Amino acid sequence: xxxxxxxxxxxxxxTHTHAGDALLRPEQLSFSQNSDLQQIVISWxxxxxxxxxxxxxxxxxFSPWFCVLQETISVPPNPxxxxxxxxxxxxxxxxxxxxxxxxxxxxxxxxxxxxxxLVEGGDMxxxxxxxxxxxxxxxHVGATITFCCIVEEGLSFGQxxxxxxxxxxxxxxxxxxxxxxxxxxPTKYLGTNVICYPNNPSDQLTGSTMFAGYPPLLxxxxxxxRDLTSAVCSWNEARETHLYGRTRKxxxxxxxRSCSDNTEKKCTLDRWENNWTLEAKNPLGQHNLTDLAELSxxxxxxxxxxxxxxxxxxxxxxxWAWKYSSYSFFALVCEVVFVSRENKKxxxxxxxxxxxxxxxxxxxxEKYTLKIxxxxxxxxxxxxxxxxxxxxxxxxxxxDAPDVWVWMNRDNTGQVIWKTLEPxxxxxxxxGYKVTFQSAEENLQHPxxxxxxxxxxxxxLTHMATLSTDKIEATVxxxxxxxxxxxxxxxxxxxxxxxxxIAVSRAVYTNGGFPISWERDDNNGTCEYVVEWxxxxxxxxxxxxxxxxxxxxxxxxxxDNFYPGVRYNFSLYCCSSEPPQLLQRLQGYMQELVPSxxxxxxxxxxxSNILLTWEEIPxxxxxxxxxxxxxxxxxxxxxxxxxxxxxxxxxxxxxxxYGEGSYKFTVKAYTSAGEDTGAxxxxxxxxxxxxxxxxxxxxxxxITSLFLVCVTFICxxxxxxxxxxxxxxxxxxxxxxxxxxxxxxLDVKPSPHSMVHIVEKPHWDSSKEMLVVIPEEDxxxxxxxxxxxxxxxxxxxxxxxxxxxxxxxxxxPRFPDSSASSASxxxxxxxxxxxxxxxxxxxxxxxxxxxxxxPQMQPRALTEEPFEPQAVSSGGxxxxxxxxxxxxxxxxxxxxxxxxxxxxxxxxxTQFLLPDGDEHAEEKHQQSSAASxxxxxxxxxx
Length: 942
Hints:
- The protein is built from 10 helices and 56 strands.
- The chain is mainly β.
- A hairpin with a 2-residue loop joins strand 12 (157-162) and strand 13 (165-167).
- The protein is elongated and about 215 Å long.
- Mean pLDDT is 77; it is low at 11-20 and 760-928.
- This is LIF receptor subunit alpha a.
- Belongs to the type I cytokine receptor family. Type 2 subfamily.
C-alpha cells in the first residue's frame, strides 16, 4: 500500500505543480516483449529532452492499479530515427498479470503528461482457463526462477508443488499466484514438474516443466586422417549439459559446416584443411575450440583386414590386406599381440605398405589368437584400429622331456615320478611314457611302458640288490604320434641306507610362499638344486611336488595347492652326477588353525588322586604346531583352568586334593591359532575298596607262596644235607653186662649229676629205698637255675619224671627189637633208665657194667598240671607219645641192642621217657642249633 500511495502522490503533485509549464509528452509509445528472457522493450519519440519518468503498474490488485516500478531514467535518442528505447526485465513471467506502462518527459522539476501503453497478461477475464507460466523453462543449475499460476475463472487457489514439494506462494492479482523456486541440481532427462492445484481436488490442474543444466564445455578437439585424404575431427565434452531433446541439445559446427551425426562427438570432412574451428551451442550458452596440423602428422591407419596364416610347429606367417590402396607406399609400424593359454606376447614389425609378418618361438600344437594394429613409422601420431581377432593352431611335433624326480620309502621301495605333460608340452596326442631302469656298468636295462594318465613307476631296491653297482639310472621319455621326447634321467642309490636324520626347522609362510635359503657350493658348479614338498601326514608313495632351481641360493615356494591347516614337509637336495643329496629339511603351515579333533582322554583313580591320560592327536588333525595342553575342571557351565602343560610330550596329569565325589575334566590342545573343542572325561572318586584290600592280600599270599616254593625247591635239591642236619643218625648204644628180665624191682639211684624228681603217690611204700624226693623249694631253685643255663650243655641236670611201678607181667615190646634194646624185672618196682652214648650210670655199672641213667637234654622245669588217671595207674615213667626209628634200615631186628634209641627208656616201656616240660627245652635246643644249621646250609656244596 505504501508504494501505491507514494506513486499516486507523486503523480498528483507533479500534475498540479507544473501544469502551467508542461513539457511535450512522449509520442508513438510502443513495446515488444521477449517471454524467454521476461523482458519488455519500450520505445517512444520525444525530441526535446532525454530524461523520462517510467511507471509500471500491475492491474487488478484489490484496486485498479498497483505500482510495480517507478524510476527516472536518462535515455538519449537514437541518432538515426530519433527514438528513445528502454528495456525492462520482469521478476515474474510477463504473462502472469496485465501491466500498464507509463512514460513522461522530465526537465528538472517540470514534467509532461503521461503516455501509457497496456500489456495484456493471462489473467484477463477474456482468458477464463487455468494457466501456468513459464512453460518448459531452461535455466542454469542453481538459478532462481519464479512461476505463476492463474486459476480458472470462478475457482479458488489451492497450492503449488515443485518436484512434489509444496512451496510458498504470493498473490499477484485476483487470479494469479506466484512461487519462487531455486534449482540447485541438474534435472533429469524429462525435467522437473511444477504443478498448480486448485482448492477443490476435482477441478482441473495446470502446470509447467523446468529444465536445469549447463552451457556446453568441450575438450580434446583434434582432426586426423584415416585414408590419407579426408579429415576426421573428434572432441570430448568436459562437462555434461544435462539438456536433452531437439530444442535443448547442443549443436556443433566445424568451420561453419554443420555436423549432423554428432552422437559420437565425431565429424568427417571430405578434404584435409590445416585449420579447424569447432563451435558448440545450446540454449544456455556457446563454446568454441580450434585445431591446427599437417596431414602427415595426423595419420591413424584403419584396421588390417582378411587375416590368414601359414603355420609350422614353432613359427607361423600372418598375412592381411589394406582397405585403402594409398597405404602401399606409406611407411608403417605394426604391433602384433598373440595369446595362447593365458600367455601373452607382443611383437613389432616395420615396413612400407606392410602386409605380412613371421612369428617365431611358438609352441607346437598350440592354439593362438592374435590381433594387429598399425601406425605411421615417421611422425607417429596414434595407433590405428585393431583388426578382428584371428585364431590358428601350430603343427604337432615330439613332446618335451618330462620333469623327473625320485621318491624313496622307508622299506627299500620307491617310485620314479614325473610331472604329467600339459597339452602345450606334449605337442600332440600323448600315447604314453617309457621308463627304463639301467646300470651303466653292466649294461642291464628294464624298460616299462606306462599309460599317459600315469606319472609314476614303482621300484623295489631289494629286487635290484643282485647288481654289483651302487646306483642305477632311471630314464623317462614321453611318446606321441610324432615320436619320443628326449630322455630325462635321475640316479637312484641301489645300496639305500638311512643316514642320520637332518634336524627339521620351521618354514614360515610369508608373502604368498615359503622362503628357503641355503649356502651354495661354488666349487660344484654343476650342482642343480631341487626343492621338494609334500603333505607331512603322508607316509608311503606320497603325492610329491618339486621344482628345480639352478642359479639361486634362495627361493620362495609358491603353489595353488597350499591349504590352511595342512603341514607340509620341504626338502632341499643337491643334484649332480651322483644321487640327490639331502641338505635341508623344513616343516610349515600356510596358516595354522585350531586342531580339528580333541585328544583321546581317559581318567582313572590312582590311590586318592585322579590320573588323566590322553593320546597324541593324529598329525592330519593337528592343523598347526601343538604348543601344549590346557587342563580344565568342567563345571558344565564353566571351565576352570588348573594346569597348562607346555610341549606335546606331556600327555598325563595327576589331579590332587579332591575328595570323594563325581568330577569332570576337560583337556584342550592348543596351537598358535587357539584351543580345540576339548575332550571331557568323568570319574567318580572313591575310597580304597575291598577289592584293593583283597588284591593286596592275594599279592602277599602270592609272594609268600613263591617264597615257599623256592625254599621247597632248595630243600629238595639239598635233601641229603637237610636230612643229615635235621634228622642225624643216632649212634648205636653200648650196653655192658646182661640185660635180661628180672622180677625184682630195680634199685635205681640217681646219678650224682642228675636229680630225679619222685612224684609221691598215696599207695607208695616209703619203707623201700626208692628215688629221692626233692622238695618244692629245691625244685623252684632248680627251675631257676635251669632256666638260666643254656639248653645245649654237658652239665648234669635234674631229670624229673613220674615213678613207675614194675609190672609183674612180661614186657612185650611194641617194636620187634624191644627185647634186644632193654630188659626189665617182673618183680621189681624199680626201673633203671639208661641214656645211651652220653654217660653210664653207676647203678648200671654195679649190676652188669652197663651205663647209668643220664638225661638226653636239659629239661625245663615241669609246669604244674593235674595228673591223668592213666598216669597214676601206670606209675613210674611217663612214656613219650610217639617214637620211630631214625631210619628204616636200622629198625630191623637184631641180635643185640638197638643201634640208637635216641632217648632214655624204661624196662617196662618202649616209649621215650621224656617229661611233658621238655617240649620247651627241645625248642631251646632247636634255637641253639639254628645258627650252626644255617652256617652248614651256606657252606655245603650239595
